[in-house]
Specification:
The structure is a single chain. This protein is an alpha/beta fold. Helix content is 37%, strand content 17%. The protein has one domain (26-37, 56-181). It has helices at residues 3-14, 40-51, 69-75, 86-99, 122-130, 158-172; strands spanning 18-19, 28-32, 56-61, 78-81, 103-107, 134-135, 138-140, 145-147, 151-152. The longest helix is centred in the last third of the chain and has 15 residues, at 158-172.
Length: 185
Amino acid sequence: MSCKAKICRGILRVFGWTAVEPLPPEDKCIILGVPHTTVWDFFVSWLYYASIGGEAKCMVKKEFFFPPVGWLLRAMGAIPVDRSSPTKLVRSVIREMESAKVFHLAIAPEGTRKPVRHWKTGFHFIARQAGVPVYMGYFDWKTKRVGRGERVELTDDARADMQRIQALYEQKHLVGKHPERYVTH
């Protein structure tokens, strides 16, 4: 285990968190992050991934990339994105994924920290186009357990897959830092 991994694992423990699963075996994948109710989810998931020896990428709106915050975000694997054109955003992420040797992409399917009933399907399109698996990552503020979760198989039907994924998350009884902001159905 690297020094960085040991430090991150120690920080997680200090705050009462337990890292549950190891890295996915694939060089490229998408890891969902649910429930996303606070900006602190980013830090918990970053510490988790670093503690197991990984380096995940995530998309952050470009408006946050001003000095010194932007420098820190880039160092933590954040990719600045322009959300005004979802199609361009998805295509640019697919290009980055295809050109990299290792690319684990963390995505919050809710798309926001506010409560939403219908999650975004951009991750589905990225995964299908790039031919990469999807894992049902989670951070549970009640039990303080964080992990990559199990692999979920996707079909050609994004809406049906999303309903199934949301139902699987609902069965986990996860609690967000702000529970009122997490809706699964």
